[in-house]
Amino acid sequence: MASSLTLLDRRLRAPVVVFVIGILAGCGEDAPPLPALTIDPQRVTVSGVSSGAYMAHQVHLAYSSRIHGAGLIAGGPYACAADQLDRALKLCTQTLDEGPDVASLADKAKSRAAAKHIDPLDGLAEDRVWIFHGDADTTVAEAVTAATAPLYSALSSRVRLQEVRRAGVAHSFPTLSHGADCGTTQSPFLGNCSFDAAGEIFRHVVQVNGTPAAQSTGSVHAFNQDALLDHGKDAMLSDTGYVYVPAQCAQGICGLHLAFHGCQQSADRIDNEFVEHAGYNRWADLAGAVVVYPQTRSSLMPLNPKGCWDWWGYTGSDYDTVEGVQIAWVGRLLDRLGVRASL
Question: How far apart are alpha carbons 196 and 166 in whole angstroms?
Fold first, then answer.
């Protein structure tokens, strides 16, 4: 295995000009507030890819009383990094051993639930979880992704798991026909894989049946993410996030899905490629579900030049609890949309 310094250099190397452009892209006039929507609190789910999968998993456990399923692509198990970047790079991405210690991670999650740093684990019962790994992924090892399912099982025997392993898929978000070659990992980190990952997430996690239209018919709205900050605390997010609203959701009651992009995949980096082409929106039309696309931003202090979601502690040691600034921001987003705890 390469040294941790080599791994750190490989993953965090980023041209300064790209970083500066990313910062400038987040500047400008404030976006409007999140639109007023009516959300069914029993139909709230999350998903994500890479660092976004880690984030979706953290959010699911932190708010299991409000979130009822998760789709996780090329991520790993909760609390794997333990607030240590070196551990994150060694054990939680390119591990060469048997993968993370699921029993110890389960104990940590149970302890945090008991201390009310995350929601009671009873909230996971009957939640549907979809876990995906591509066998051409050289960024996150299969043993890391594979540890997530037994962790869920250790936390609740009633989680409804589906694990999918697909040949020829690299470290990217698989789509039917958009993006780079499926076997490569390159911007915009959408893979042209003849595989509809967003559709599979909606089928298993959101539990929608049928076939969506070829094109979405709703509308994408920008919204001001800063308006959801807690007393100005910096959550290391872009000024602007995006929400897709199916036509029937502008006035009626709809479900809600939170979709977390991966590293180097925010709109500051790739415009609205993930928002418009990951494949969620046409399924959202079929399901009657609003899709919110939160956005991170790049930074050098703290060290996050690729704009990843915090799954190792760059925003603070409480990053994967309800006290963490990014997860707390998600909590205020849910509050704003009227999604309260159901336990």
Answer: 12
